[in-house]
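Please supply some protein, with fold tokens.
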Amino acid sequence: MNYVNGLRAGMVLAVVLAAGNAASQNNAPVPKPTPKVGDVLEFANLYVTVPCKRWEVKEVNKDGMQISQCGGNVAYFDVASGNLVRIVTKEGDKLVQFSPRGTSIDFPLSVGKSWTANYDGYTNDDGASWNAKTKCAVHSAEKIKVAAGEFDTLRIDCEDAWSSGPFNGVSKTTSWYAPKVGTVVKSSNPEAAKWNYELTSFQSK
């Protein structure tokens, strides 16, 4: 069973397009970027198990939440941390939720930084509910090429110890955060392909 890797993507749309590329190369702390209404990120196939590719920022701070939309799906992000809280349909049906929020990023970022956090998760596609303790670390600065281009990135390795009823396990994910774009441009989980994603294009207002 592998329920926890959506939180790797949990910060992706909340932190759109900001300066900071040089900081990733000299290990100066990379701050949380500032999204703008109209910023767009597009991914191949799924985003956090939801089959929707093009996400556009609609609100930058509504009651402490940044709001992005893809078709009939709406994503809510914690403004303070940039992490995903939930994705729902326009009718309010819950598709993905992390309580109190996802834990896969902790600004400012720099090589060698590590953090731990707890959360409760839910995904509608398989009806799974679980709780987890996350351990993450910024492993290194790396240059990678994805569909959207070539980027200088910070590689973040995360490990989740999760439990769901009588089941438990450990899930590992690697993500590459590009300060130039202000988002994770690639995330990889070897155990569950539905959590993998890659940036294909982006637009900044």
In short: Residues 21-26 form the longest helix (6 residues).
